[in-house]
Amino acid sequence: MAITLSGSDTIPAPPLSARLSPPQVWGIVLLTPYLLVFLAFVLYPVCYGLWLARHPASYVALYHDPIFARAAVNTLIFLVVGINIKMLIALFLSGFFAQQRPWIRWLSVIFILPWAVPSIPTILSVRFMLNPEWGMVNQLIFKFTGDDGPNWLNDPAVALAMAIGVHIWKSLPFWTLILLTGRLAISHDLYEASDVDGANWWQKFRYITWPSMQTLYVTCTLLSMIWTLGDFNSVYLLTGGGPADLTHVLSTLGIRYLRLDQLSLAMASIVCAMPLVLPLVYFMMKRLSR
Amino acid sequence: MKLPTLRDVGTEAKLLLIGIPVFIWTMVPIYHMFLFAISPKEDAFSGKLWPEHPTLHNFSIVFHQQHYFLRDFWIQFWNSTVIALSAGALTLFVATAAAFSISRLRVPGGRAVMNMALFTYFIPAAFLAVPMYRTMGNYGLLNNHWSLILAMVTIASPYAIWVLKQASDKLPVELDEAATMDGATTLQLFRLVYVPLMMPSLVAIGTYAILLAWNEYLYAFLLLSKDTDITLPVALGNFLAADDSPWELLMTTGFIYALPPAAVYYAFRRYMVGGLTAGAVKS
């Protein structure tokens, strides 16, 4: 055998391991666990899901399902109204927490609680608080006015507003903290100089704070929108999608179809959200993967 | 000591006017939960802001599993603990290895893997849950704790890799070069140079993954169903199935369930604030 390989025969390429340096071999070995996780639990499910959503009939069925249209509108309200209110409050409060006072430092420690505790018990706590008969809120309304309070979670508009409120309650501390980091990074000299020039607070905000924070603010808003699309708990645990399935958002609707064993509808409803998700993802990827 | 001027008092009053509503807004749902936990059943539904007879009886009922809804409390607590710790350890392993490989060893294709991870980070979790549920069914992992652990690793590792990569890009290359000159192998470099230097970020990421898994509701509720397999949040959600749910017990269980993550968060807050918010959003 050895003899036949001699002479004009080309030398076979060395095996892959010989062409790579030892660190590179280790690099591939160490990258493998994540690659396996990605292939098995991201790439395969996503491809499988898209394959399940391939029938045009699913989209026709979605189009004729009034719950889907309602959920799409609710999702848009949740994103456009909810997120913008939340981020504006966060921007405002970041200015508040930037004040140097011992009691404000203590308040900031307490303020982070909603973010630190799990959302399930607190959302259920709000749900009970809003119960029309026994809930704390209506009992207090009755005690002070003698009138029965509104049936909070039975009116779709109010229930959706409450779900947005719960979402804001939960995630406001996180975004305030991020915006606070951005605010504290602004040089203090700028504010001192503007004091000398006699600028009022609005001018300071408009010409110093906002220009250095706007990129961060926009990034945060977009990121929050992507995450809020996946916010299942706020709606599901507060209203359960009710009354009469009028407060669903796309994330709870997908799970609702799944529970009804209509997997292709569930995937189709998610595919319908892609025109909203993919531009946001593209933008965030461009921003973060530098 | 100088006396505060009128202007100072005015500023302070304005700050208090913001601070007090912020405090109330933050505390109301948590206080309400606590109030239920220390109220006997009659007081809980009377709408009082402080119970007439505060009691720890509810805690005793929960700890002794003396209610239909609570008969598996301890095993569910154990499930939550095991799943959170396993997901944390596994995420830490997967993410540290990947970040070291991408950032320090500059493995070919590392950038592509980083982008794949980032893309995963941006898929809304509730959207991935639907195909993930079916996939776990195909793998035969439904109703198995591994399904939830692996799902949590999938959700947690993209962010973990990204934060760890950001942190390790900041370490000077000269360190690796010096260690290699001294004859360190790649594994020694990883174990003796990289991991010790990355400790603060590793603590932050481990905590992040543990809290994420402990707090997860949606995936747990889809992937596990047997009463002795489920985690605490799913058990809490199951209270809603009945119309006459014992709210005071539900709130007590919820309070117990919320304590460990809050304690962990505050214990590691120094790491969390430094390690996570710095990487969370790059401006």
Overall geometric form of chain B: globular
How many β strands of chain B by DSSP? 0
Helix content of chain A: over 70%
Helix and strand succession of chain A? HHHHHHHHHHHHHH
Q: How many strands, what sense, and barrel or not for the largest sheet of chain A?
A: none
Rg from alpha-carbon coordinates of chain A = 27 Å
What is the CATH class of one domain in chain B?
Mainly Alpha
Proportion in β-strands of chain A: under 5%
What is the global morphology of chain A?
Answer: globular
- Please state the oligomeric state of the protein chains shown: heterodimer
Main sheet attributes: strand count, strand direction, barrel closure of chain B:
none
Task: Describe how the helices and strands are arranged.
The complex is a heterodimer of chains A (290) and B (283).
Chain A: H1 16-19, H2 22-52, H3 56-64, H4 66-97, H5 102-111, H6 113-116, H7 119-129, H8 136-145, H9 156-184, H10 188-196, H11 201-229, H12 233-238, H13 250-259, H14 263-288
Helix pairs in contact in A: 3-14, 4-9, 4-11, 9-11, 11-14, 13-14
Chain B: H1 6-37, H2 41-44, H3 57-63, H4 73-104, H5 110-121, H6 125-138, H7 145-169, H8 173-181, H9 186-197, H10 199-215, H11 218-223, H12 232-238, H13 247-267, H14 269-280
Helix pairs in contact in B: 1-13, 3-13, 4-7, 4-10, 5-7, 7-10, 7-14, 10-14
